[in-house]
Design a protein that fits this description.
The complex is a heterodimer of chains A (431) and B (131). With 431 residues, chain A is of the alpha/beta class. Helices cover 32% and strands 23% of the residues of chain A. Chain A has 2 domains: 81-326, 3-Layer(aba) Sandwich (Rossmann fold), CATH 3.40.50; 331-427, ANL, C-terminal domain (GMP Synthetase, Chain A, domain 3, 2-Layer Sandwich). Chain A contains 11 helices and 21 strands. In chain A, helix 11 links the parallel strand 19 and strand 20 (406-410). Chain B is built from 4 helices and 8 strands. Classes of the chains: A alpha/beta (431), B alpha+beta (131). At the A-B interface, helix 11 and strand 20 of A face strand 1, strand 3 and strand 4 of B.
Chain lengths: 431, 131
Amino acid sequence: MIWNEHIECMDREQIEKLQSQRLCEMVERVYYNVPFYRKKMQVLGLEIGDIKGIEDLHKLPFTTKDDLRENYPFGMFAVPMSQVVRVHASSGTTGLPTVVGYTRNDLSNWSEIVARALYGAGVSKEDRIQNSYGYGLFTGGLGLHGGAEKVGATILPLSGGNTRKQIQSLVDFEPTAISCTPSYLLYLAETLKEEELLDKIKLRVAILGAEPWTENMRKEIEKQLNIKAIDIYGLSEIMGPGVSFECINQCGSHIAEDHFIPEIIDPKTLKPLPRGSEGELVFTTITKEALPLFRYRTKDLSSLIYETCECGRTSVRMTKITGRTDDMLIIRGVNVFPSQIESALLEIGETQPHYMIYVDRVNNLDTLEVWVEVDEKFFSDEIKQLEALTRKITKQIVNIIGISVKVKLVEPKTILRSEGKAKRVVDRRHI
Amino acid sequence: MKQISIFVENKPGRLNEVTKILENCDINILALTVADSNEYGILRLLVSNAESALDCLKNENFSVKLVDVIAVNVSNIKGSLHRILSVLSDGGISVEYMYGYAEGEIAALIFKTNDPILASKLLEENNFKFL
């Protein structure tokens, strides 16, 4: 099923013409409304007229998460707040969240691209969809919600967590589709199996995203639940879920090219790479009103496929994310930077920042453990005081990253010191 | 009296490591106890030379600390411990932890209290003998 055949199956020449036109309009809008970009363009000696089409895209400056942080919270918005109808946020690199905004048109475009994703996965108004992404500042819940409403599916807005309720809804309300993180769906599958409820559910398809996952996980999910597992990709800075999506052929995610222009760059030289190469994925938002971004560096590694897909869509496809160019971790769908944990430890002040982060997947749920060296300065010879310290560190980290963490105190000098850039993370999830 | 307290992770061989270091530094252990939690323990020792034990263990990167404790000698007969605790409790002292041993006619008790100075004074007034 194709939601918007006119756009999704447009030939390359036409889509590039549309992109060029929208890019030029965007550059003008941004130049006059976002001082941050105007300054950047002036430094580069770039004038509005220098961008005549997508062939000039490489002349524009890059944008990073740090830029958004430096302009926290609303500094990069291109419209007055009276036109912003919603704000979302995701974790930043050091504790300050990355804030994004949407106008009414932005929300409408967002619903449109999620509707395309749902149709791509075969979900229509005949379906009931259990939306188990968190509703709130996180874009997952409300993003999926808007698209599901647009296609007219019956939404069961469960939001994240509360496994008991999730299972009850799967059994009693008989949804045919579910949207959540792949690891959470595996966890739900385990629970259904344990309670011998697998034959009581009507699920047919799952729309999964917000964290990296492998082909092996896909196979596991499809086998355990006897459903199709479809990938949806997105990031709040660009829009949220729906920036790209897999169709039922599961061979790369179709990018909504009428809204976002993708590029693949070399993360070291920052030069665009030839078609088909693997590198860092970069997006320029050409229709966004509230928060238009030039060449946003996702730090995700991928490559682009330009051939027409078997499904008939001509839109460019991105291959499954193979890694990141920074040290960001995605744990239970939440972005976590080691620097956030470091800043939590520094705020406590009693610990020297020698720590190690261990990420693991136990029973299909991501676990986060932080080992902290016990400094002599605060070593107490009473267990109760050490336990109080553990609780204090745990609370501080949870306050900053928003997900649960286990803190373990270890002896001084037992965490490996490395020369140069310290290795702070051991990820045992094999993803 | 100075007790030495050492932070030790719960893993095989760690206690062994401490005793090896102390032996190499020519230090004799007089009394010991281990307080344990799930992941780590605190080893508390009375040793022949607390200051030098502290230096030796610090050099080997252990988190160590000297703690004031009171070590009392009593007769190994029933009611001895009760008499000490009565003196402390009547004096408003709370015991944070304690350990002890008995051999032959003598028993030794080691206390960590919230107020070691007052506790020593009270015990002295009541004619208890220190180790």
